[in-house]
Amino acid sequence: MSSASVSRLPGATRLPDLSRVPAVDEVGVNERVARFQSRSIKAKAKIEGLKLTLSMIDLTTLEGQDTPGKVQQLCQKAIHLHDSMPGLPHVAAVCVYPTMVSVAKDALEGHDINIASVATAFPSGMSSLDIKLNDTRIAVDAGANEIDMVISRGAFLAGDYQLVFDEIVAVKEACGDAHLKVILETGELGTLDRVRRASVLAMHAGADFIKTSTGKIHPAATMQVTLTMLQAITDFYYETGRMVGMKPAGGISSAKLALHYLVMLQETLGNAWMTPEWFRFGASSLANDVLMQLKKQETGVYQSPDYFSKD
């Protein structure tokens, strides 16, 4: 299926003129990130921030060794984060490969937890559009209500923006009612200017969320990259009136770092985005550190990591 044959979604705009996307002030980005990291968060606000972080996590397993048993265990963790601490929110979603979506759907039945699936030849994106669309439809048909797709970074870096744009439009159409998160794989894009252009392209193509990384490439999410994407979301909102969500993923494993991200989110996009509907953390180990910090706030001492499941 060629890019020329991709049907456009109703209301989808054409490829924007990316040459008009403003350059990123890297010095300014670094200075702002340093200020976010210096914020002092008091005890009550810290507890609320930690609980909010839990509610924003896409609890993730994306390994070649994934089994139905491992996915079922992950789903149980999503439902029962720490039963000795009643009143905790549940995570936003469980994120798995398309072949594991049906397992997650059965395990999460009756619970208000989203099922996310990676698709489009994750993590490389190196496949034909037909295969990417089939990958997406398999996940949606199995019960995924969120799709995390990867862009064709090779095409983007070669300047074939139209192909990347048209692929996102086609995948969005294949998602049906499922939300689409578009992974830029920012560690391969190389510069903040490219991150900004890719963000603008993805949002104009219909992305419901833009996402930093697959978690398979280093560096993955950074605060500098995330701030650049948040600023792109801000400008897109003022231009179009449409809210787009944000998902930093990969390398966010500490509660302290997650709180820095929430400070940045609030001061850049404001309170409207401070919900799981519009912001997610893609993580596998973050939940445990958040739980340990909450237990520390409650008891004054840290619990051993052995008290928390690894998956």
What's the arrangement of secondary structure elements?
Layout: H1 26-37, H2 43-55, E1 57-60, H3 68-79, E2 93-96, H4 101-107, E3 114-119, H5 129-142, E4 146-150, H6 153-157, H7 161-175, E5 179-183, H8 186-189, H9 192-204, E6 209-211, H10 223-240, E7 245-247, H11 255-268, E8 281-283, H12 286-299
Parallel strand pairs: 1-2, 1-8, 2-3, 3-4, 4-5, 5-6, 6-7
Helix pairs in contact: 1-10, 2-11, 2-12, 5-7, 9-10, 10-11
Describe this structure in words.
This protein is α/β, with parallel strands linked by helices and 311 residues long. The chain has a single domain (42-299), classed as Aldolase class I (TIM Barrel, Alpha-Beta Barrel), CATH 3.20.20.70. 45% of the residues lie in helices and 11% in strands. The chain has twelve helices and eight strands. It has helices spanning 26-37, 43-55, 68-79, 101-107, 129-142, 153-157, 161-175, 186-189, 192-204, 223-240, 255-268, 286-299; strands spanning 57-60, 93-96, 114-119, 146-150, 179-183, 209-211, 245-247, 281-283. The chain has an eight-stranded parallel sheet with strand order 7-6-5-4-3-2-1-8. The longest helix has 18 residues, at 223-240. The radius of gyration is 19 Å and the shape is globular. The N and C termini lie far apart (39 Å). The model is unreliable at 1-8 (pLDDT under 50).
